[in-house]
């Protein structure tokens, strides 16, 4: 959570590797698959590119980023697009989300977290090739033809309104203002389009001399990570609720990708890949705040809070989302003029939007862990019955305020009370103790086992399972001396 500026990348559809399908748009024949990127497409992408970088934590700098760019441009050449190497912009994003996507004009993105999950260069090329395939097939333009009036935030709002608030105009207006996390800023594409991009990515892998089966293995790792995340967050299944997901479980695409690849072999470049990503930041960037279990800590903003039991958090660039069966919330900030009551009312007004006169019935003043605080509740009649929206704001030093916006079924806001009461300042010592985790590539020594190396993972829970998923190892696979593997360590 680094910045809180509101923005919407109006009608610029993101093409995502990790996203599942959305009904109504077919893959169909690939139009102009080798046509050069047009001037219009280039201008559209150039306009959206800076905003998109801001939404996903900015670019990750250094040698790892240069390597990702090199692999991406090399695989782009296989698409047949004119001047592909010069026409594509490949960015490594400083984001802890497992995702990759593209926008028109040849702008390709992958997060450092997804790169960390990969185990060879062919997998990286496959993911980036998938995105090149989206661009070559003009999937964004075809998607926009179906949803010209959707902004990214609007699409996210519609997801929540359909699940929690019904399809009423009240629900859609409320949710458009409520959803601000970057995790909710992607339009989904049809299953056939995703499969078509997989197929093109596999084709490009083969042309470049890579093992085309890498597309299937990276999808396997992503499916395993989804399952691990579900387990760690206390969810019953690996599918993140549709209203809060940017990467539904890709397990269903794994077998299709492997079948398309067939028995053809090729280069993996495993050791090269591992040596080039050594030292890559893993998980949350402390500059954006970190999630540790149910606690969120931000060393720069000097704040911390704890999510309620049974809820899980997702850290975005402009907000922290807190999600559970009984409601959703976000922690963010807004302009503050020193009057906390005015601040609370402005948040309600912002959530309601210009077409919805949203205001609390009353505002109460309190103190939370020494912080001046105020809160209010508004009841909204939506398509699925009444819901309560709570805005709970806190005054910090340096004329700064932060707030939770929480929505639940009417009368069930108590689920968030422990979280509201957990907001606190953190000490300089606590802030200094928040350090980044990084990938450390090690060579397996004689006598090393999965269990012994897992104990070096910088986590207090699920160490072995984290190690296996990170290295693409099945539940019974072992390691051998001389093999390179990844562990996660804390930087000091």
TrEMBL record:
Source organism, top-level taxon: Bacteria
GO terms classed as biological process: proteolysis involved in protein catabolic process
Gene3D superfamilies, alphabetized: Metalloproteases ('zincins'), catalytic domain
Limits of the LysM domain: 440-487
Keywords of the record: Hydrolase, Metal-binding, Metalloprotease, Protease, Signal, Zinc
Alphabetical list of InterPro entries matching this protein: LysM, Mito/Outer_Membr_Metalloprot, Peptidase_M48
Any one GO molecular function term: metalloendopeptidase activity
Cofactor(s) required, per the database record: Zn(2+)
Sections of the chain in a coiled coil: none
Cited CDD domains: LysM
A cellular component term, taken from the record's GO annotations: membrane
Annotated signal sequence range: 1-23
Protein name: M48 family metalloprotease
